[in-house]
Amino acid sequence: MDTRELVIEVRDLVYTHLRDTPFAVQALKGVDMEVWRGEAVAVLGPTGSGKSTLVQHLNGLLRPQHGRVRVLDYDLSDPNVDVRALRRRVGLVFQFPEAQLFERYVGDDVAFGPRQLGLSREEVRARVREAMEAVGLDFEGFKDRLTFTLSGGEQRRVALAGVLALRPEILILDEPLAGLDPAGRRRLIALLRRLKGERGLTLVLVSHDVDDVVLLADRCFVVADGRTVMAGTPRELFSHPPATLAEFGLRPPSIMTTMHALADRGIPVRRHCLTVDEAADELARALEGG
Amino acid sequence: MIVESLELRRHVTIGQYVPTGSPLHRMDPRFKLVAFVALVVAVTFTGSYLGNVALLALMGGLILLSRVPARYVLGGLRPALPVLLLLAALQVLLYTPEFTGGEGCVTLFRAWFVHSTTCSVKLAIVSAARFVELLVLTSLLTLTTTTTGLAHGVEHLFAPLQRRFGFPAHELALTLTITLRFVPTFAEELERLIKAQVSRGADMGGASWWRALRRARALLPIMVPLLLGALRRAEMLVLAMEARGYVGGRGRTRLVELRSTPHDAVALLLALLAAAAILTVPWPW
Amino acid sequence: MSRTSPVPLVRLENVHHIYAGSRPVEALRGVSLALWPGEHVAVIGPNGSGKSTLARHLNALLLPTAGDVWVKAWNTKDPRHLQDVRATVGMVFQHPDAQIVATVVEEDVAFGPENLGLPRDELRRRVDWALDVVGMSAFRRRPPHWLSGGQKQRVALAGAIAMRPELLVLDEATALLDPIGRRDVLNAVMRLNRREGMAVVTITHFMEEAALADRVVVMCAGEVVLDGPPHRVFGHAERLRAWGLDLPPVTQLAHRLHALGFPIPPNIVTVEALVEAICRLQVAQGREQHTQKHS
User: Fold this and answer.
1) Test mutation, B17, B244, B258, chain C, max C CBs within 10 A
2) What helix, strand, coil percent values describe chain C, rounded to 5?
3) From residue A245, how far is each of A133, A206, A236, A251, B12 by CA, in Å?
4) Which of A50, A41, A29 is nearest to A223 (CA)?
5) Which residues in chain B are closer than 8 Å to A58, comparing Cβ atoms?
6) pLDDT tens, position by position, B76-109
7) What pTM was estimated for this model as a whole?
8) Where are the domains of chain B?
């Protein structure tokens, strides 16, 4: 019996942008998705596949034109849904979130959300401290720094803290690793893992980069041309041949491409290794086996 | 009932080109611009009722000629209506004969500082008519001309000035092109910012729009990032332009040629005649 | 490929660059480098190492605060030859949106050659050629803001190469693209380098891209710390890690196997080389077993 709680349920979601205008475009043609509490789910697919449109339904920015979207105990087709309450429990971080920073001081920007909630000064301060520590920015050291003197990676973490300060139960991130250098990526991946593990956050990650996804996601949904075309664990997903994945604008993780190349040339290795560690062990095993 | 989702691009009609293949669309942008200026002059200096009736009839004819639905052309009027009405009311109630000029102003109503005369009523009506005429002219210009057409038109028109007096014709046209090119980009950026700030608790949607607008501080989360983004983008654009050898308009050649036809000359002539006629006829009323 | 001519395209001689401000930053500290016709150079390094600053000295967007930069026979400090320098060294930047000036693709590509004052038929020829090389000919009359990121970058690339530069600099030009866009831009760049003989300098965070170059230059804290072919540079795994840099996945694999005791060279940068090494190893193992069986 499944004791897990289904926190997000999307059934046959249809959405057309700029409906009834000459510029209408049908972004979603029937998408399905389920997310259980505490897991990390990746939404994969090429640009223009409708991923961003999909996740904007999850915090009420867009409403289903057809189909069902249920998040926690909110049904998004109901016009009387308290969207503000929903947004306190579901945090959405857009791509390049550092672009939304506007306060002079880091602490003030992180405090924006809690202040909007009408909390007391002490409570706001506590939330800001908590959120900043969660993203690895020392409260005392960073709260009075000038926002725009921080590095790109630091600014991104400030933006993330701004959303975490609302204490969401579900965190949705649209391309969280876009534009970061390798060190920044590693740091953010570790951060997200911590948020999931230590704070029990449910994560939904939209990404077009598969290398990072395999390190973070428990399950994946592939959205192509406005529909869910594949679903499963990363391992299940990438056990499909590269040609099938390419049809949906995906490529296997880089290390898997190498393993495919080795296997194609007759070296007796298992193709479906997701990380360098797995690949190294697999190759070592194959070579020792002689 | 389905709730409206936030879609700003629905409302961006400035700089919107609606291709219908009409004669107005096909007109050479240089001739169109000159005709536009001539008609604007006519509108600006026509203060009589009948003159404006003639102009409004002309506008109607141009709308028909453009084959763009009148509803769409006049759509830009709706947001401006409250301001227009306010202005008209002020003009009717407060403009004294000394201010409005014209002889034979009959006082209709007078109390304290309120002073309405037939002249102030006329001014109010004529001003409103002028506004509609200018709106239609400007809308028709951008609805029937592509942004590149406009920019090229401007550049070609000012080119002789550039050659002789070093007038920055190309810079002007380039400024126009870049501005128009970035309008959709900024609309998207604005929409994204609003969504991002709303997602972290900002109070901006639905009925609280007006409440939020009155509190200037509430606009900061939108205005600051938008302006910063604009500045950053401008910086990058300048670098890219310099990297491609841009040193101003002098000595530049052009890929695109504008080719005019006799139709264009005829159209321009008609526009000039109409403008001249409306301006010089001694309208009795 | 490289070294077909004894004269470098670009020469940096002890270049220093200090960004002025309340806290001056010395971004380049005595960089000396030569770039040769037709070569493909990757420049890697952690953030803040001076890579972008270096790139902008190549086409005189920045001038050295000390030292000299020579593009062919011209010193970048000489304002008389600014356009010559910019026509010789082209550049594509990171943000797809912030490079496109015009409202129609082919007019944007023509922007550079128009600045050079070329006659109209030459403009047309260059625009057609550039769009063809990057594979965007079908989009010539479209408005740029309807294109995807990868398509926009290819338009920006066309705009840069339409000036027929001898050296093309890509400043993290693929960083903001999805894998498909990245692949399309890279393919176009490889075509330019291999088929058209254009020298290319790519600044990148993607080690798989750097592994494809003829030469890798590693920068750290404003200095060049490593400079050589990929298999030599990526052999210095510990030093690269200390500087906060990754290895290409293939190299990571080879390195790991080497650490486990297998006689695989740890500086392999291509899949083919890894395959070869493993096959050789298997053959050697086979022979060993054979010897063992028969002794």
Assistant:
1) B244
2) 45, 20, 35
3) 39, 17, 12, 6, 38
4) A50
5) none
6) 677 778 888 888 888 888 777 676 666 667 777 7
7) 0.84
8) 2-280
